[in-house]
Amino acid sequence: MPKPIKPAAASQVRIRRAYFEFRHGQLHVRTAFPTTGGFDEQVTLFCLHPRGRSSRVFDRFLPRMAGDRSVYAPDLPGCGESDADPQPGAAAAAAAMADLAGGLRLRQIDLLGFQDGSEVAVALALARPELVRRLVLVSLTSTEGLTSAAQPCLVLRITDEWSDATRQGAKLLPNARLVEAAEYAPDLFDAAPRILADTFGAFLNRDAAPARDAAPSRDAAPKSAAGQPPRAPRHP
Questions:
Q1: Could you report the per-residue pLDDT of 34-63, keeping only the tens digit for each?
Q2: 37 Rama sector, left if φ>0, alpha if ψ -120 to 50, beta otherwise
Q3: pLDDT tens for residues 73-99?
Q4: I need a surface site. Which of 11, 30, 57, 162 has the fewest CB within 10 A?
Q5: How many Cα atoms occupy the beta-carbon half-sphere of 34 within 13 Å?
Q6: How many whole angstroms separate alpha carbon 90 and alpha carbon 141?
Q7: Which domains does the chain have, with CATH numbers?
Q8: Which residues touch 109 (CB under 8 Å, ≥6 apart)?
Q9: Which of 147, 221, 224, 235 has its CA nearest to residue 192?
């Protein structure tokens, strides 16, 4: 069993905002990374926000997730403070994320996609399978290409307009584990950043075995240390 990831204290994580070049201009990126030096870090994580929003969605989540890895939350092209792509869409946004990874000289990354951000994550996983190691998809808005995404994948089904599509999409992914989390609404990254960081970190820090091999049943909710379904903390 993977060890749970302890939430990082604020003093152990650095938060920055920066701009990085991509093929159509610049991407505005929020970053969080541990202050421990980097030699024993886990795989870098990119967090991809929904359409019409920005990386601000992950503000409270980033410091919780960055205790043992570098985390990048870009404003996707045309969103937030990033320059637009002349041909917007999931494929174009995925290409921009590949540019970002290349600019950072990253050989491998993990991806977290939230709602429409999941489409971008899957598009990049299909286009660059050697780059993308694992996927965490929170609420699937499209089933396109899912049967070809071979990476181990954790799918979180929350209470939103895509809950049915998320369940169906998880069945199409070859190496997916579906986690039912009906207690979460679309504000989950604000409401429960600590619990999400623990859940996602435990999955991402596993060895290379397919996600389905060591996963609990598809209908199991994520468990807390006490064995009960997690609830949003009052003071995350």
A1: 987 656 689 999 999 999 899 999 999 999
A2: left
A3: 999 999 999 999 998 899 999 999 999
A4: 11
A5: 20
A6: 12
A7: 10-204 (3.40.50.1820)
A8: 43, 44, 45, 46, 101, 131, 132, 133
A9: 235
What is the value of pTM for the model shown? 0.82
Q: What is the rounded distance in angstroms from the CA atom of residue 8 to the CA atom of residue 127?
A: 33
Alpha carbon 123 to its chain centroid, in Å, reads: 14
Measured distance CA(197)–CA(66) in Å, rounded: 9
93, 77 Cβ separation under 8 angstroms: yes
Q: Which residues of 135-158 are buried (b: 16+ CB within 10 A; e: fewer)?
A: bbbbbbbebebbeebebbbbbbbb
**Res 144: pLDDT:** 86
CB neighbourhood size of 87 (10 A): 10
pLDDT band at 1; cut points 50, 70, 90? very low
